[in-house]
Write a structure and sequence with these properties.
Order of helices and strands: EEEHEEEEEHEHEHEHEEHHH
CATH architecture of the largest domain: 3-Layer(aba) Sandwich
CATH topology of the largest domain: Rossmann fold
Number of strands: 13
Bound molecules: guanosine-5'-diphosphate, magnesium ion, zinc ion
Helix content: 10-25%
CATH class of the largest domain: Alpha Beta
Strand content: 15-25%
């Protein structure tokens, strides 16, 4: 007998809503899964033992995760899992209106990198401004950039194709056009994602958990207030450099093994900035985030 497999879409208390080949079912943790798994989260792929009455099925096992998006909360003493098996993160920014904040984009990219989730950038509202400099900046850093306009339809098909068949998180500042974009890709999508503002970058504590929304083209959108609230908590300052893809060729080549690429002599990252092999303002973003991580209050670690 082949065990029933499924993907967790949502959790409501002790009950999980799970997508299976036979349709959506409701299930609770049972036996070994209950003991071994501190928390089964949205996105987890689970093994199920069907309930003969077909009411509440039993989750008896959890497959190894490919990625785990974790939210680090000050009062949480460590990380809380938000969603598992996320394939990719799209950071959405407007080309203009509201003006893009490169630092905020970099911060969200770092959160994705720190969680080892592939990240790309959507530059929306290209009907208002081509966003050439912004696109070049991010492309140079190694990110795929999707120029889009909900107004003219430019780039929507390409973005929709990038979502199809994958599990994605879409994040970015309020007003960038996330809701408009996703509704254009799939009209009627029931999003509830909280917005972030440039000011409240660390976000507010929220108890709302993530939900996976199935896409008609296959794949899922992870609707989570978690991502923008993940923040930088718990990222080791020594690991921040590897969250900047364009720094990676130079890492390990500095004179000092523990180089933070600030003012240390023999720093290859700074050499690369001086030679314009690495964009200066990306390095400046790194320095701002480094400062923040190094000054993180002890009790938040
Ligand atoms: N000109 C233009 N306006 C857009 C585009 N996409 C969204 N908007 C507008 O930008 C505003 C914010 O969009 P919304 O989807 O609510 O952004 P969100 O906060 O990121 O979800 C709305 O007034 C949209 O109509 C676009 O591609 N071009
Ligand atoms: Mg919105
Ligand atoms: Zn260095």
């Amino acid at each position: 007998m082949t065990a029933l497999q499924g993907t967790v879409l949502e959790r409501d208390g002790a009950v999980y809503r799970v997508a299976t080949a036979a349709g959506e079912i409701r299930a609770v943790l049972a036996g070994k899964a209950k003991r071994d798994t501190a928390r089964v989260v949205v996105g987890d792929r689970v093994r199920l033992e069907p309930d003969p009455e077909a009411l509440l099925h039993a989750i008896v096992g959890v497959e190894p995760r490919t990625a785990l998006l974790e939210r680090r909360v000050p009062e949480g003493r460590g990380a809380r899992p938000v969603a598992a098996n996320v394939d990719q993160v799209f950071v959405v920014t407007a080309a203009i209106d509201p003006a893009p904040i490169p630092q905020l984009i970099d911060r969200l990219l770092v959160v994705a990198e720190a969680n080892e989730i592939a990240a790309s950038v959507v530059v929306n509202k290209v009907d208002l401004d081509s966003g050439t400099a912004l696109r070049a900046r991010l492309g140079r850093a190694g990110y795929a950039v999707y120029p889009t306009s909900v107004r003219t339809g430019e780039g929507i098909d390409v973005f929709a194709a990038a979502l199809a068949g994958r599990t994605s998180v879409v994040t970015g500042p309020s007003g960038a056009g996330k809701s408009s974009l996703l509704n254009r890709v799939q009209p009627g999508l029931q999003l509830r994602t909280a917005e972030i503002s440039a000011r409240g970058r660390r976000g507010r504590h929220t108890t709302v958990s993530a939900v996976m929304l199935p896409l008609d083209a296959g794949g899922y959108l992870v609707d989570t207030p978690g991502f923008s609230e993940v923040g930088l908590w718990g990222i080791d300052p020594a690991e921040l450099d590897s969250c900047f893809p364009e720094f990676r060729p130079f890492l390990g080549e500095c004179r000092y093994a523990d180089c933070r690429h600030r003012t240390e002599p023999g720093c290859r990252v700074r050499d690369a900035v001086a030679a314009d092999d690495v964009a200066r303002d990306r390095w400046e973003s790194y320095l701002v985030l480094l400062e923040e991580l190094e000054n993180e209050p002890e009790e938040w670690e």
